[in-house]
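Minutes, methods subgroup
Present: GH (chair), OT, SY

1. OT presented the first of two proteins processed in the latest run. Sequence and structure tokens recorded below as shown on screen.
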Amino acid sequence: MVPLVLLAFVVSVLAVEGYTSRGFAGDQEGRGERAGRSGAGVPPEVAGGGPVVDAGHDPPRTYRAPPRTVVLTFDDGPDPAWTPRIREVLDRHDVPGTFFVTGRQTARHPDLVRDLIRSGHEIGVHTFSHPDLATQSEDAVDRELAFTQLALAGAAGVHSSLVRMPYSSTPGALDGPSWTVARHLGGKGYVLAFVDQDTRDWSRPGARAIADAAVPEVPGRGTIVLLHDSGGDRSQTVRALETLVPRLKADGYRFSTVAELVGVERLTGGVDTAERWRGWVFVTAVTVSGTTVSVLGALLLVVGGLVLARCVLMLGLAHRHARLARRRPRAGPGPPVTRPVSVVVPAYNEVVCIGKTLRSLVASDQPVEIVVVDDGSDDGTADAAEALGLPGVTVLRTPNRGKAAALNTGVLRASHEIVVMLDADTVFEPSTVRHLVEPFADPSVGATAGNAKVGNRHGMLGRWQHIEYVMGFNLDRRMYDLLRCMPTVPGAVGAFRVTALRRAGMMSGDTLAEDTDVTMALHRAGWDVRYAEHAVAWTEAPGSLRQLWRQRYRWSYGTMQAAWKHRHALVERGHAGRFGRVGLPLLAVFQILTPLLAPLIDLLTLYGLVFGNPLLTALAWLGVLAVQGVCAAYAFRLDGEPPRPLWALPVQQVVYRQVMYLVLVQACLTALSGYRLPWQRMKRKGNVVVPPRGGGLPSGV
């Protein structure tokens, strides 16, 4: 429930931020769209009248600026870079301005609107998101104005009955659709402001050209001038005002507001307490969403860097690992391990799997002693194992005390110094045990991790896990092996030196990841842990999302438990300290932090597709996917796997990764709460199959 609440919050924040900050086309962008529209239906007194129109009367009323009167109007703001500079020029010359603000900019920069009002400037409405109102329905027009009024109420506690439609110019340029909107706005009590002179400052023709365009063509005539305080670099507009205002004053012009032209004191008014509170909530939501998205953006850079760093690091180290493995003998400096080894198989209600597992072990080309520890099964697992009558197999029956206790029982019963451990749902190849124990020729090696593969990879879920095992687990182990900080000997295929196990304290039930726990304990006890890539084991992966959730929830939670338990390795010396200062940070960054933040890539991709540049966003997402595809393809090549399943990688990134993210979030919250998660057992189906060498369709064992 909590992960879903967090997801809903992030989605809501992105939606608010996207709607309130999405870039809009400036007035200049709509000029071409309006060309050629018919002016039919526009009353002559409006088309040939003054630039201020009150369409709420019949007939409509229009107003002009009196002689030698200039109204300076500014569209598209407020803007944190240019609005304060324009206001400073106007205030210094004691000149009022009329600022037609958009709701988006008002909600994002409420302090700028308050500053304009405190300085005595006039505020008008320029819609919320700057659409061409002539192309909108009446409901859409009403929403644009309502949101803008809400932003004004929250920002400054005011509303305005003065409006300028986006992409409008002189009354003579009105067409039929835009006049329909004007009449609708007039009916709602709005006074519409058009212009006499458009300086086209958006085209940056130069400060002098802007100033010249604002001077009335007919000396002494009153005029309403269009300028902009947002939508781009407005430095030329600021410089133009520095010369324009003194120039007009010297020519005997005075400066006024639209309200004075209409004959009223002001076109803005206060709002009641309820409306002000609603506006405050709205503006606060926009502020919070903006801050949150800024943080998410910074985190995205971190995640992107970590993902790329992980890919580069894994590819580089895996390539080096493969080259070294080809050059050096697989055995260590000591004599080859040819003596028999013990194999411990813990089993709890594994009747459907145990036969296939034991038959694969008996077929090993390394002499083995097999100890099956039945951990209180009630489905006849022990009877089924004994009924097979396989040579070298001993079945121990114990009360149900958990996997760690069952493994310890098997180790104590084992006759040999090297003990191989595997889950009862796992199938070994004939050479797996031999390859697994080869590194023990080096007396410093305390354990080896084998190469676990998905044995039931049919179906989409199986393919996704197959890709994950090859790319996410076995490619990682090559990296960890080269850095000598292997964090986990997988329970599905691993081998241990009994002496090393005893010095590390044996298997512990302190965590739900006993394999990770004991591996870290071995490092802290000074033992090397190696990766035996040729020791291949085929294990049964969860066949349903519910089973997968339970398994990964236990893995994630158990890994966090183990990392916390062995955190003191960070300050220890020798091999323990190396693992603590290299292995633990890598584990925290690449197995907890990066997967936890990775969904930001997908969420912000959706954000970019809806509110940003769809093409650029899609290319960025495909770029990340391509990098991961390269890693996956190389991992498949190293593992000798055919690349056919990689067609499912894009879908895995969209669906499977989100499930893993939710699991990890829940595991983190469980760990933070201190709750002791019970063991999550997976229901077996016994459908593990081993593909023949060289790929192809799987065959049964």
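2. SY then presented the second protein from the same run.
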Amino acid sequence: MSIAADSTTRLWALVAKEFWRKTRRRLRAGPAYSWRYTGRTPERVLIAPPDLRLADPQIALEIYYGRFPLSGHLVETGGQSPFLIDVPNRGWQRSLHGFRWLRHMRAAGTELAAANARALVSDWIALHGNRISGTAWEPATTAKRIIAWLQHSSVVLQGAEFAFYRSFLRSLAMQIRYLRSLAREMPDGKDRLRARVALAFAALSLPAPVSALRSATRNLAEELDRQILPDGGHISRNPMAVLEILADLLPLRHTYANQAEQPPLALINAVERMLPALRFFRHQDGSLARFNGMGATIHDRIVAILRHDETAGSPPLHATHSGYERLAMGGTTVIADTGTAPPIEVSNHAHAGCLAFEMSSGRQHYIVNAGIDTYGAADLRPLARATAAHSTVTINDTSSASFAHSQRVSGMLGSPLYAGPRSVPTQRFDKAGIHGFVARHDGYAQRFGLHHERELSLSAGGSILSGCDRILRAGKTPIKNDGRDLVTIRFHVHPDVQLFRDQKERLVLTGPDIDTWVFISPDVAAEVEESIYFAGLGGPCRSRQIVLSFKASEISEVHWQFSRTRIISRLDGERA
């Protein structure tokens, strides 16, 4: 069976599995199962776990006045309960029902904020607490809500009457039983892991038998061992997943300690591996490299997590299990994707960016990937995930991996990546004064019989980044000039960087900082084209890209170089 046929078979098997999963979920939400979620109501909340996510008292005030800024979308309720408003934005709905915004009420620290939090929780219980359906009861959203209600129970219950106190605990217990019944059947990935985290929080924060804590701990450990790779990355290969999971695991570790319970070894080990992994993906300005679903970075969020990193030091240079390499020297940082496609079950946000890289110098990014607009229009996602949106090679203007965009599939799975690179052999060649690697992927082998090999080396104290891109024919046979061998190398330039040609016709990149970089490509003439940077804090914005185009049948190896040099005034050259 061919690779493409095998991938298609796996895709449709996953569709069938998801159909069956959703059918079982509907059955479990029906009246025949609802009695299973009733039972004894806990007497009290024993402990409110900490929340490391950033909080803003101003947002609490906005919410008080009926303005809900969630998931990059502002909704004004006009005095109505937000749970009565039909908002078509699914991300906003999930954020609303996930209740993470309670942290802003806690940060406000006022009786008014506490009363508002209690009123909103009371609204949810009255409108959704006894009707298991819709976005409010999606398992992933339920897991977020359980964690948020426990973490901010002191705010919600501040000054509460006994009737509300009991109603809150009764609803919380019902949600926990519901999530426990579905956790094992949830789709693979961080949402399933978060469900296990939520159930561990519940077993620690509420009165529960020893067996419940033991079971929650065991299930959590199994999920951590399966999803967190030996180098600390996540099986989805998304840097954002590392940040999100740490934001849950660190408070959970703290809660185990506060309750004088021994956290599972898998939790301790996962945190110790993931903190260096988070530093691995950071550029010197604190932002995370834009690979496989990563968009704009909220820098303070990372700082809040890394305060707990007791192993602080130089980031590792290899993330072989996650499939990334890092070159760092003299204030220059290069991060490259050298991994195969993630498992199809967790590939809904994965990109076709094999062998793409990003380069920063000091606190300025020069070469980037387009990233994604986290809260933007879904119509732009396919563009952001394509190979052409990355600083790597495309062949015949196609991506090195395929995405499932059909309505039949997207209705069940979203848009998973399949038929991507299966083999990416990588070799480091670090030595005195040089950090480098060479890697090759087979993402184009099935369609065009071609492999892309990229060699990168950082030298001269971080002032020279040398690259070589080779197009190789499978079996070492000659590449035919059949119109199917057009190669394009792209280097996407950060929108804050100015790009112009100097008097020697070299391309010069200058940023707000003092560093200036010159690009040369002796084998192929460089052109400058328009591009889009999706990962801006304010949303997508215009940018530019350096483009090298050639036919593989005529040129099989292209060398290029970025070199840091003296400041060159724009008056010395013409704008590119």
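Chair's summary of item 2: Residues 3-28 form the longest helix (26 residues).
Next meeting: continue with the remaining queue.
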